[in-house]
Amino acid sequence: MNEPRYYRPKKITEALTILSGEGAGARPLGGGTDLLVRMRVGHMKPSVLVDIGRIGLDTIHPTGDAVVIGAMCTMTQLLGDAVVVRQLPALAQAASKVGAAQIQNMATVGGNVCNASPAADTACALVALEARVMLRSVGGVRSLPIGEFLRGPGTTALAPGELLEAFSIPLLPDDTAAHQSFNKVGGRNALVCSLTAVAGVTQITDGVVQQCRLALAAVGPTCLRPSRAEALVHGEPLTEELCRTAAAAAAAQAQPIDDHRATGEYRRRLVAALVREHLLECMKS
Ligand SMILES: Cc1cc2nc3c(=O)[nH]c(=O)nc-3n(C[C@H](O)[C@H](O)[C@H](O)COP(=O)(O)OP(=O)(O)OC[C@H]3O[C@@H](n4cnc5c(N)ncnc54)[C@H](O)[C@@H]3O)c2cc1C
């Protein structure tokens, strides 16, 4: 294998100039926990690696009605940030489930999303949180909803020469009345890729559901929003029966496949169980 050329720019403008000048063979390098593994087994052969670890994309800023999280924030950084832990607990819970401590110290939230695995943990939480991705190239900036950014397994809306710079995550008007969760089931209890994961962000005022946003991971080509389940609970007081009905609706909207790790039918049952668990927790909180 030819060794790729390696750049470590100190400014985002330098990184973007290299990426646009080097063409399709150039890849941004975040923590490398996906990219370097793929290169080692020969699935990816970039001619140029642009290390984006020194260009200032590792900050977390509350802006009043949103939180802006830099793409290079690691899972460990998310877990240690008071704003994330308090106001975006679904994201903190997802970050805590990404591999072991060694992986969490290197793995970035931007890399997790750009890798576009349907099972990516923080991507699932960000879909339920309705994050927007902020993209930058030498031509300027644009932003789009994360649901439009994630297009399928390993495929995103990232254009050649573009970097994912940050996520903007809107805060709910009254986040004290919201219940957020992220739960995943794997082949064992820890350190494992999801068979299914569910993130939920549900706001209840005076006993009535004001918003319910659910995201399902590893049961479709990308993270899915089970819109029928969300609509069933919207504007309703939660009851155990409604939780069960909505969970069944979410399972019906999942598109799981059979593979060596689990059958599609088992994954569908997990979706129902995890959605029901989220809604039952909302009833208690
Ligand atoms: C042992 C092990 C266990 C793991 N367990 C889990 C798990 O439980 N859950 C889970 O979700 N993932 C898991 N992963 C996958 C991986 O750790 C995550 O997807 C991680 O968040 C990727 O981030 P990174 O910074 O390492 O990305 P990198 O490997 O650096 O990059 C991944 C891809 O994204 C691109 N990229 C990175 N940053 C940007 C950017 N800012 N703009 C544009 N493109 C970019 C790269 O070019 C590359 O194509 C595991 C990996 C390993 C090796």
Brief sketch in words of this structure:
Helix 11 packs antiparallel against helix 12 (264-284). 45% of the residues are buried.
Poorly predicted residue ranges: none
State which percent range the strand residues make up. 25-35%
- Supply the number of helical segments: 12
- Helical fraction equals 25-40%
The CATH architecture category of the largest domain equals: 2-Layer Sandwich
Radius of gyration: 19 Å
The main pleated sheet reads as: 5 strands, antiparallel
Number of strands: 13
The largest sheet has its strands arranged as 4-5-10-6-7
Structural class: alpha+beta
Description:
The chain is α+β, with helices and mostly antiparallel strands and 285 residues long. The protein has three domains: 5-51, Uridine Diphospho-n-acetylenolpyruvylglucosamine Reductase, domain 2; 60-170, Uridine Diphospho-n-acetylenolpyruvylglucosamine Reductase, domain 3, CATH 3.30.465; 178-284, CO dehydrogenase flavoprotein, C-terminal domain (Enolase-like, domain 1, 2-Layer Sandwich). The chain is built from twelve helices and 13 strands. The protein has helices at 12-22, 35-40, 75-79, 82-87, 89-96, 101-106, 109-114, 121-128, 146-149, 227-233, 240-253, 264-284; strands at residues 5-7, 26-29, 48-51, 60-62, 66-70, 132-137, 140-145, 150-152, 155-156, 163-170, 178-185, 196-205, 208-217. The chain has a five-stranded antiparallel beta sheet with strand order 4-5-10-6-7. Strand 6 (132-137) and strand 7 (140-145) form a beta hairpin. Helix 11 runs antiparallel to helix 12 (264-284). The longest helix is centred in the last third of the chain and has 21 residues, at 264-284. It is globular. The mean pLDDT is 95. The structure holds flavin-adenine dinucleotide. Flavin-adenine dinucleotide binds at residues 27-35, 37, 52, 71, 97-99, 103, 106-108, 110-112, 114-115, 120-121, 158, 163-164, 193.
